[in-house]
Amino acid sequence: LQPHHTGTLSHAVAEIPAFGFYRQRLQSHCVLSNGGLTATRREEDELHSGCLVFSDRPVPLSNKGLEFTLRIEGVSTCFDGFPMIGFTRRQPADHIGLYPDLALCLGQSVLVGTR
User: Fold this and answer.
1) Are 21 and 54 in contact (CB under 8 A)?
2) Residue 46 burial (C-beta neighbours within 10 Å; 0-12, 13-18, 19+)
3) I need a labelling partner for 95 at 20 to 30 A (CA). Which of 9, 12, 18, 101 fits?
4) Would residue 112 be called left, alpha or beta, if left means φ above 0 and alpha means ψ between -120 and 50 degrees?
5) pLDDT tens, residue by residue, 51-102
């Protein structure tokens, strides 16, 4: 507990993320940082693919349904469109066939957004 300037006591609550990114196998142009909470595409001004990431566990269920927050901290001006986001029933596993050649070909998935 820490005293506030008003004389009341409170405690700092650290918000623990519900999940991070699966880090056992990454695509060639993906880098994780911030303890697996931040995904960055390497060479983002040259390549528009190669940074598909999975969460490390299912999206948590709340009283509002399935819910998560995504924050985009930067974008490249070299490409048109928005990033694609998707949802899949597949569980990530450390095997060579984890990532399809095209995100559109990921089985048991729904993708939102276009390039």
Assistant:
1) yes
2) exposed
3) 18
4) beta
5) 889 998 888 788 888 877 888 888 777 777 667 888 888 888 999 888 888 8
